Amino acid sequence: MMMHWRAARFLLLPAAMAGLLVSTALAADSGPMSWRDDLSPKDRARVAKVTAETDDFSKSEKFEALPGGATTNRKVFDRDAFSQFSSNLSFAGEESFKLGNGLFRRLWVSSPSSTQAADGLGPLYNSRACQSCHLKDGRGHPPGVTDAESFLIRLSVPGPNGPVDDPTYGGQLQDVAVPGLPAEGHIKVTYQEEPVALADGTVVSLRKPTYEIDNLGYGPMGKGIMMSPRVAQPMIGLGLLEAIHPGDIEALADPDDKDGDGISGRINRVHDDRTGKTVMGRFGWKAGQPTIEQQSAHAFAGDMGLSSELMPASTGDCMKGGEQKCFDMPSGVQAKLGPYEVPPDMMDLVVFYSRNLAVPARRNVDDPVVLHGKEVFDEAGCPACHHPKFVTRRDASMKELSFQLIWPFTDMLLHDMGEGLADNRPEAGANGREWRTAPLWGIGLTEAVNGHTLFLHDGRARNLLEAVLWHGGEAQASRDHVASLDKADRDALIKYLESL
């Protein structure tokens, strides 16, 4: 039996105002959320009411159309829909956002260069700009004949205490290098079509990918090499995900499936580079990074070979098992800018930008077919992992992100998704079959923003139905429920997902 996560109605301040106020008409006796140390007992009761279940699918819930709360982008739904700043951002915040946007789009060059504030690229890299991977701040795609810029391969080999970076190729394959240095290799993907018959006789073809690395630049990879293919993820709503109280995520975790619903979400415990502590992972396909800052620093280092305070090596992913020449290439460190190619003030602006990319408003929330699709989504048990909503912490890092009712459709937890989606490469506490529940907000605008409808961690699914049918493991029952639907119910489910 699948657990259902339904939602209740609430009242919100006018959109121009930054905070969320739960209606005083809601009773304060609904039970405390004791882990919410940022809230008073009264507010805990209100938040519990706001995030409670609903069984009314005859109409949309109040403010369901604003998935980012007061931060929601309500105006732009074209190819720039994912590139808007939080609607409640101050004027000064808008200026910082625009500066961060400029840095996010900056094309870095190799050293030495006359553009000293933008050199230091490489020596090994995948892309010259953040925006080149996160196209229009949106979703990447698998490689075509020549273009693999928004796609990468994570690497590791077995070690004495768990997986470690490949001694020659590091933790990530870089398919580009600065002049005078060979690239590590080039990614080749082929697909095998596999037909899947649905209960009503419809046959859907799923494409199963196989990955190869051609033209290895530094000899063979390590024994037992593990590879994890991944497309770049959308950038929207990251600051809101960071502002979810850890206790709310802990409350959803059920690693031993004690409630017997077949869902056993786990938290990935990862290393915090700034504090040195082991903390909750939130970002990346396997929740391998704890903060937007750390996610950004590792992307600068791995994707572009750029050093920062958290990742101080200007040689990027050069490894001792490779060529010494990789370590001998000039860096972009400038005495006047400090010891890093990405100085702290520059990193702060990129993090600010990433933290404040607004989630677009939903469309057609009161369409009868969409509402029916929402009910089908619920009946299939999808909300057991794609948890609809949270109220962000009152003491968030920015007031604009504080105490917002948000609808990300993720529990931020790791789930076993079955052998079909397994990469068989552990990451921190995540095993090779586990993935973090991907947020669904904005998913219906993927084609408008990125010109494709390729989903899942490696972009193998060509549409939303294929993505659902690839689900296995803990999601097998939900997948089978969808496969049993008639065409009208199935189409309604897809229309609901497209409204997110």
UniProtKB/TrEMBL annotation:
Keyword Hydrolase assigned: no
Leader sequence segment: 1-27
GO MF annotation, one: cytochrome-c peroxidase activity
InterPro entries: Cyt_c-like_dom (IPR009056), Cyt_c-like_dom_sf (IPR036909), Cytochrome_c_Peroxidase/MauG (IPR051395), DHOR (IPR010538)
Keywords per UniProt: Heme, Iron, Metal-binding, Signal
UniProt cross-references to Pfam families, sorted A to Z: DHOR
Residues in Cytochrome c domain copies: 368-500
Identification of the protein by name: Putative thiol oxidoreductase
Organism of this sequence: Hartmannibacter diazotrophicus
